[in-house]
Automatic annotation (TrEMBL):
It is a multi-pass membrane protein. PANTHER family: FE(3+) DICITRATE TRANSPORT SYSTEM PERMEASE PROTEIN FECD-RELATED (PTHR30472:SF37), FERRIC ENTEROBACTIN TRANSPORT SYSTEM PERMEASE PROTEIN (PTHR30472). InterPro entries: ABC_BtuC-like, ABC_transptr_permease_BtuC. One of its GO terms (biological process) is siderophore-iron import into cell. This is Fe(3+)-hydroxamate ABC transporter permease FhuB. CDD domains: TM_ABC_iron-siderophores_like. One of its GO terms (molecular function) is transmembrane transporter activity. It comes from Rhizobium jaguaris. Belongs to the binding-protein-dependent transport system permease family. FecCD subfamily. It is found in: Cell membrane.
Length: 656
């Protein structure tokens, strides 16, 4: 008996039964009134809903939870990474983006099967993440960082495509957030046999997978071919995630939570982890979905379960970050030695000249009624220029603030990949505006206040969660990205309610200057002038603080107070900029880095150069968005994000 319990682990078995029992109990409360009702002559609508909607939905929750948990357990075991799962590695987001793009532009490919399309998107993302991870020894931080950034980019692009084509894809947006709603038994039956086939294939490599616990060197000496094993196991996990995503959309973080609970409850061996994780995940998703339907009533049919699980999964990711230090060797990023000479006036002059050209082009060049390029007609000059200038100055001010905020964050954290967007500060501002719009309905000043509060709260959470590690660069990044995922999930839940304000919020989140008027542009410009001037006055702090606490204290700088004020200043700048260009632009990453590449290494020149470069980039992004697909508009935030995310991937590759 003891041998049986030791082999299959009693603790995870009890936990799995507890979760499945709780899910079954909630499901009984959900369906009991229908079963107890007396049948009447004719069509029994409640029972039809039960047998063709409610029960298939509960079965889908069980199967999707099991499949995603198995995928997460496989990824964690083969990559030796306790944070790996289809969400954190971007696999589910890649499948979702592939389905959105195919539905919109290549609908004929759907005849080949949604699973194949989703599998193709997942495979592309998995290859990108694995290639980046291989260059850094499959470091847990590099893998998760790459996956989460790609996931944010894919999610943003999916949301924008849905927004620009909401007539065709509005239901696809709700599905993409993880909707388990069913109308027949087709999907659960399909999930059952597909998951079973993939699980059986993965079971064939159980022995070599178990040998990885002895270390890669020992496993190789015993005949394990690591490259082939990784390919097979990661391929199986990608297939599981793709099958679930094609059926019900993106279900966030179940593949992370279930294996973690199994491991904490006593699953030590790979066999135990792969056996109990799917059962725990099935129970977790069943509990989440049944609770949503019970608490939300009729609205629960439309609430995306995947977004709700992401709301609870992101905090878990924050709690699990310290475990990486215990279980895995962390590959710290090293600062590259800067060999550039201090920049003179020539570099700044070039940056200002580029900014001036961008302003002139954006203000005076456009497309006419017939689509031709040129300057506005003299008779229309007085009407068109006053319409364009507020948008131009809003983009300029927002880009400059994001770039200066990025300089502050990078210099304080010692991390060249820190920015308001990547750290989740812009997402916090978005959350503040969301609360303002849905609860208080304030004016522009009120929105700015709520955005600042949200940004500062997220910044405080990042600092608190990373303080124990001494603000280690990777931990700060992962904390910010996980908070961004949680905020996006909350906004997704609100958007799925069908409230008209959610559509307006999505338009604003896309980073479009379409609704900017003279009043809002003036407000943002004044805020940019005041906050940028404050940052310039803090140049001495920003020059000395990167040297460390001891040198700063030796010259009389109050380290804690100065850091607190500078982080607060970065949060305020991010909040003000987010109101005009949305939460995801990556200007706060590109501006400081390009300024540093140009030789601007001291704080004041770098901030000035980054402000000019960031403003010029955002103005050009807004101009391209307004003209490239005339007469339609692509939001400036999307244009800059489409460039910014690959830019971050290039930086990750350079830091191998």
């Amino acid at each position: 008996m003891n041998r049986i319990f030791g082999r299959f682990a009693l603790g995870p078995a009890i936990v799995a039964l507890a979760f499945l029992g709780a899910g079954a109990l909630l499901s009984w409360f959900l369906i009991a009134h229908t079963l107890e009702a007396k049948s009447h002559a004719g069509y029994d609508v409640p029972r039809m809903v039960l047998f063709y909607s409610t029960l298939p939905r509960l079965a889908t929750a069980l199967l999707a939870g099991a499949a995603l948990s198995l995928a997460g357990a496989l990824l964690q075991q083969v990559l030796r990474n306790p944070l790996a799962d289809p969400t954190t590695l971007g696999i589910s987001a890649g499948a979702n983006l592939a389905l959105v793009v195919t539905t919109l532009f290549f609908p004929g490919l759907l005849e080949l099967g949604r699973d194949l399309v989703a599998l193709g998107g997942s495979a592309v993302v998995a290859c990108l993440v694995m290639s980046l991870g291989a260059r850094r020894g499959f470091s847990p931080f590099s893998l998760v960082l790459s996956g989460l950034v790609i996931s944010l980019w894919c999610g943003a692009l999916s949301a924008i495509l849905t927004l620009l084509n909401e007539r065709y894809l509005v239901s696809l947006f709700i599905w993409g957030a993880g909707s388990l709603a069913q109308q027949s038994w087709v999907i659960p039956v399909s999930l059952l046999w597909k998951t079973a086939v993939i699980a059986i294939l993965c079971a064939l490599v159980m022995r070599p997978l178990s040998l990885l616990d002895l270390g890669e060197g020992t496993a190789s000496a015993l005949g394990v071919r690591l490259v082939r094993l990784r390919f097979i196991v990661v391929g199986g996990a990608v297939a599981l995630a793709a099958v679930v995503t094609s059926a019900v959309g993106v279900i966030g973080f179940i593949g992370l939570v279930a294996p973690t609970i199994a491991r904490l409850s006593g699953a030590r061996r790979p066999q135990q982890l792969l056996l109990w994780s799917p059962l725990i995940g099935a129970g977790l998703l069943l509990i989440a979905d049944a609770a949503i339907q019970l608490l939300a009533g009729e609205l629960g049919e439309f609430l995306p379960t995947g977004a709700v699980t992401a709301i609870f999964g992101s905090p878990l990711l924050l709690l699990l970050l310290p475990r990486l230090k215990v279980r895995h060797r962390v590959l710290q990023l090293k600062e590259r030695a800067h060999s550039w000479a201090p920049a003179g006036t020539n570099t700044l002059a070039v940056a200002l000249a580029v900014l001036l050209v961008a302003l002139v082009v954006a203000a005076f060049v456009g497309r006419g009624i017939d689509g031709s390029w040129g300057f506005p007609h003299a008779a229309l000059f007085g009407d068109i220029i006053p319409m364009r200038l507020p948008k131009v100055f809003a983009a300029l001010s927002s880009g400059a603030m994001l770039a200066v905020a990025g300089v502050i964050l990078q210099r304080i954290t010692g991390n060249e990949m820190a920015s308001p967007e990547v750290l989740g500060i812009s997402a916090g501002a978005t959350f503040g505006v969301t609360i303002a719009v849905f609860v208080f309905v304030p004016g522009l000043a009120g929105q700015l206040t709520f955005a600042a509060i949200g940004a500062l709260l997220v910044l405080a959470m990042i600092l608190l969660s990373s303080m124990r590690s001494g603000l280690a660069p990777e931990r700060v990044l992962l904390a910010g990205i996980s908070l961004s995922a949680m905020v996006d999930a909350i906004v997704g839940v609100l958007s799925s309610t069908g409230d008209p304000r959610a559509v307006l919020l999505m338009r604003w989140m896309s980073g479009s200057t379409y609704s900017v008027d003279a009043r809002s542009a003036t407000t943002v410009t004044i805020a940019a002038a005041i906050l940028t001037a404050a940052a310039f006055f803090a140049r001495r702090w920003l020059d000395i603080l990167p040297l460390g606490p001891s040198p700063a204290l030796a010259v009389g700088i109050p380290v804690r107070k100065s850091r607190f004020l500078l982080f607060g200043l970065a949060g305020l700048m991010s909040a003000a900029a987010t109101l005009s260009v949305g939460p995801l632009t990556f200007i706060g990453l590109m501006g400081p880095h390009l300024a540093r590449e140009a030789g601007l290494v001291r704080a004041l020149p770098q901030m000035a150069g980054a402000a000019a470069i960031g403003g010029a980039l955002m103005v050009l992004a807004d101009f391209i968005g307004r003209t490239i697909v005339w007469p339609y508009q692509i939001p400036a935030g999307l244009v800059s994000a489409l460039v910014g995310a690959p830019f971050l991937m290039m930086m990750l590759r350079r830091k191998s």
